[in-house]
Amino acid sequence: MTWLDSPFVHTATALGVAFVLGCAIGLERQYRQRTAGLRTNVLVAVGAAAFADLGARLGGADGAVRVIAYVVSGIGFLGAGVIMKEGAQVRGLNTAATLWASAAVGAFAGGGQEGEAVLVAAFVLAGNTLLRPLVDFVNRRPVKAGETEALYRMHLVCSPEHVSVARDLLFEELERHHYPIREIETLSESDEMVELAAILIPTSADAEELDEIVRHLERNPDVTSATWTVSTTS
């Protein structure tokens, strides 16, 4: 066996490939100022490659498979750390998915399949770059209930002493128009006012009918203001 065939050279090659490909993925993330950027993606790829290579050297193919399975679950915990919920919006899902994919690149490299590692990295970069214009185009389109399952919310603002009355009024008005309610939640609360939101069961709704409900609610002296919103379901 020549020195080129030694385990050390194999490990160095695997880590080198993981490093370069992790840099390519991470550089795109760093350029877009994402939470997990260049260093994080490099470390994930190199770490996955190191664990996969170590498992293969100590336990053969079976050892590598077991180690890779643990790497996949471990990256899941790491990805959860970059996901943040801000109100009704969830941020960081794409970054978490990119970390997961970087681990796959490293696992391929650590398993001695450098060509496949390059292929996976190319698809990850394509997903994060080439699909961006398409995503922007879709996101700019207005939400239409006839084209997608929509989530409707009926908002109502009242004073704290009228919360109970306003909640009953909101429930009764929506029930009268045959809109089933999933729940009524309190969005904000202060000494001056409280905002309630009735979340309707995902369905289609008539905008004019919802406007009529809003006008009827606002005519009640215990209600400060009312409105409705619609968003796509997750």
Characterise the protein shown here.
With 234 residues, this protein is an alpha+beta fold. The chain has helices at residues 7-31, 38-80, 93-110, 114-129, 132-140, 163-176, 207-218; strands at residues 84-86, 89-91, 150-158, 181-189, 194-200, 223-232. 59% of the residues lie in helices and 18% in strands. The strands form 2 sheets. Strands 4-5-3-6 form a 4-stranded antiparallel sheet, covered by helices on one side. The protein has a two-stranded antiparallel ribbon with strand order 1-2. α1 (7-31) packs across α2.
Biggest β-sheet: strands ordered side by side in the sheet? 4-5-3-6
Multimeric state: single chain
Strand proportion: 15-25%
**What is the molecular shape?**
elongated
> What value does the Rg take, in angstroms?
26 Å
Number of strands: 6
Helix percentage range? 55-70%
| Order of H and E elements | HHEEHHHEHEEHE
Number of helices: 7
As residue ranges, the low-confidence spans are none
Overall pLDDT, averaged? 84
